[in-house]
């Protein structure tokens, strides 16, 4: 599961879907607001896990950064 989340996060960052340069700006695109459920560090990255209405969501940021409390997907 953690590898799948890492892959999703890396794909988002490479495709330009993530609206920044790895900073935690507090928002992620537009639309549905998702609330932070947890986080874990894997290597030089941190995976931030979020709960959205009816689904989950994750973003990958630098290990030294803070996960935003909410993101929009």
Sum up the structure in keywords.
73 residues; alpha+beta; four-stranded antiparallel beta sheet; 19% helix; globular
In words, what does this structure look like?
The chain is of the alpha+beta class and 73 residues long. 19% of the residues lie in helices and 40% in strands. A four-stranded antiparallel beta sheet has the order 3-2-1-4. The longest helix has 14 residues.
Q: Which sheet architecture does the biggest sheet show?
A: 4 strands, antiparallel
Report strand %: 35-45%
Give me the Rg, rounded.
Answer: 11 Å
Strand ordering within the main sheet: 3-2-1-4
* Residue share in helix: 10-25%
Overall pLDDT level: 78
Order of secondary-structure elements = HEEEE
Q: Tell me, what's the shape? A: globular
Low-confidence stretches: 16-28
Distance between the termini: 20 Å
Helix/strand-derived class?
A: alpha+beta
Q: Report the total helices.
A: 1
- The number of E-state strands comes to 4
Short précis:
This protein is an alpha+beta fold. Helix content is 19%, strand content 40%.
Layout of secondary structure:
Elements: H1 2-15, E1 33-42, E2 45-52, E3 55-62, E4 70-72
Antiparallel strand pairs: 1-2, 1-4, 2-3
């Amino acid at each position: 599961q953690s590898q799948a989340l890492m892959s999703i996060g890396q794909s988002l960052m490479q495709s330009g879907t993530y609206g920044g340069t790895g900073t935690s700006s507090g928002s992620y695109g537009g639309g549905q607001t998702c609330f932070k459920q947890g986080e874990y560090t894997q290597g030089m990255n941190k995976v931030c896990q979020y709960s959205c209405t009816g689904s989950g969501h994750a973003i990958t940021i630098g290990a030294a950064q803070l996960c935003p409390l909410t993101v929009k997907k």
